[in-house]
Every structure is written in C-alpha cells, then in structure tokens.
Amino acid sequence: MTDPTLDTLLAAAWAEDGSVTPPIVQTSLFTFPNYAAFEDRMTGRSGGPIYTRVTNPTVAAFEALMAQAEGGDAAVGFASGMAAISGTVLAFVRPGDRIACVEHVYPDAYRFCERMLRPFGVEVSYHPVKAFEHDPELLAGVRLAYLESPNSVVFQPMNLPRVADHARRHGCLTVIDNSWATSVFQNPLRLGIDVVLHSASKYIGGHSDVVAGVVVSSQAHIDAIRGLTLPLLGAKLAPAEAFLLTRGLRTLPVRMRAHQATADLFVDRLAGLPGVVRVNAPGPNVVPGLTGRSGLLSVEFDGSVDIPRLCDGLSLFHLGVSWGGFESLVMPVRAALASGPEHNAAHRFGVSAQVVRLSLGLETADDLWADFAGAVTSARV
Ligand SMILES: *Cc1c(COP(=O)(O)O)cnc(C)c1O
To answer: Are strands 98-102 and 318-319 parallel, antiparallel or unpaired?
Structure first.
C-alpha cells in the first residue's frame, strides 16, 4: 500500500482488545508489582507511565496520532494552547536571549511575551511577515522565531520554507502556531520549521467542548519539553480531554473541507457586498505548502456599516471568542479595542475597529450567507 492519506491515517482504529477507541485511563498514578519493576520505571530502563502529570496512556494515544498527522517524531499535549506556547518557549529560552515574533500574533501570546518574558530578561521584538521573508539578517543573534502563518485577525500568510532557511543559517529555532491551517492544510515541519504547536481548543477538538494544546516536533525537542516545562509548570493534558481530542481528529479532514467550502463561498460573495473594504482569507497556494483555506477569516467594512448593529442583526452567527467549532461565530475587533489599549495587541499592531472576524461553522453555507448578508445590509447607515 502507498502512504495512507491523512483521512485514512486519522480514521485508523485503536484495535487493542477489539476496542476501536482508546480507553480513558482515569488515574493519577501507576503502581508496580515489585521493587525491581519500580526501579526500572523510575530510572527509565522500562518505558511507560509513572504519574499522569508527565504521561498517561490516553494522552499518549492522542499524542501519537497528532505526531503522525503533523509528520513529526513525537508530540506532547498541554492543558491549553497557551500552556503549549509558554511550555515550548520557556523550554528553549533563557534570560538574555532574543525572540523575534511575527506581528499580529495571538493576543495572549503577545501578552505572554510582554508581561512574563520581558520582565524575566528576554528581549522580544515584533516584525511584519515581509521582514521575516525578505530580510535574511533579521534572525541573526536571535534564539527563537515565534511565528503564525497566517497570523491572527488579519491572516497574513508567510513563506515558511524561506523563513526556515534564514533561521537555519543563524541557528535560530523556529516555532509556529498552526491552529488556523491545521495538519490538514499545512505541515510546517515538512517545510523546515522546527516546532509546531496548536490550540487544540479550535479545529482539532472541533466541537467547542475542550480547552487544550499540543506541540509536535523532533524527538529531541519533545524530550526537552517533556523533561522540563511539562512536569515543572504542570499544565498537562487530562485523559478525558485527550479522549475528546482523539475523537475530534478522526473527522478533522472532513470538517476542514466543509469549513473550506463555506469560506470559499463567502470570499466569492463578499467581494460584491456593498460596504466591504477588504477580506482577509488566504487560500490554497498563496504561499508554498498552504493547501487549503480554513473557516476563519476577517472582513473590514467602511464607515457605512454600523458594527454593533451588524452583530445584533445576526441570528446564525453568535458573538463570542474562540473559533474552530461546529457553530458560526462573529468576533468584532471593536469590542477588543474597547477593552483598553494597555497590553492590547490589536492596538499595538493597528487593526481597524471596522474589522469583524468570522468563524464559519458547519451550518449550510447558503443559510450562513443569507444571515450575514442580510445583517450587513440592514446595518448600513
Ligand atoms: C485560541 C488560540 C490560542 C490559545 O489557545 P487556548 O487553547 O485558548 O489556550 C493560541 N493561538 C491561536 C492562534 C488561537 O486562536
């Protein structure tokens, strides 16, 4: 047989004891029949779990599937996407090191850099996508490049093979948040990026019922995280959440194709909708290695559209943060800006209050379009 497709790989049955799904091993610790077995496990001579803060079979089953999906050696689960981000960065960065971060990064990743890393003596600078692509010296002397492609809210895609090349020449570790594209539409490890992480709360979980994160990389990098920040910060993935994430992964390719079809319809029709200034929704092949368009996009309106009235006129789209679930959501940037300029990444990088982010769910695309276009029309002043 040739290499299985991602659909086939993710649908593989667990098949131990005839069960097609892994069991939820809801235990905090594991016991041993005798001293020799205990010492073997404690010293690492025998592999396997000791304590669920570090390893658990249900979590390991999710990690193994995730590593295969991203094309990495190994993966490590975390309690949230933010735990995956902080756990990864803190495993590789020391006081005095420099981080180069992409502009329009996820706002809490920005706050982590500003409010935690900077006071601990890590220097963080922010650069546009184009600077990462076109300035081969940008990463000279930089310990870690923190990337998103596309980045948050404005969804600018990045040429990852080129940036990975620049980084490699300077010995700079590259870390990317791949939550938007998922393993279905982009595999950064195969494009030369060192470490891939996800907020599994989004498309991987896919059902808006889990907050979790995961990191995929080489065995050495995952060992470094598992040996340091996973046990010492302690933000581990729980067995019950890991079970739900494995369930989410089974249908990830099917769901991503459905999200993409709806996003394609929106991108097509938004171009002709009065009041629309810009649509931020990168599609397949706008950069090397990006093979699809997810259901998360943003739309900038001119002053003729009243944003609060638009939000209140929607019935299928709900107001809320997060994204990647079955339900459609609208997130008006105006509300984020209203929460104050301090530590607000949208302020820092300049995003218009006339931008709304849409997470297109699994409802019928024509129903969603009718709801959205109707609300825009009645929100024009
Ligand atoms: C939501 C999100 C995160 C944070 O993930 P949590 O699971 O909420 O901690 C990180 N990156 C991106 C791009 C996100 O959208």
So the answer is: unpaired
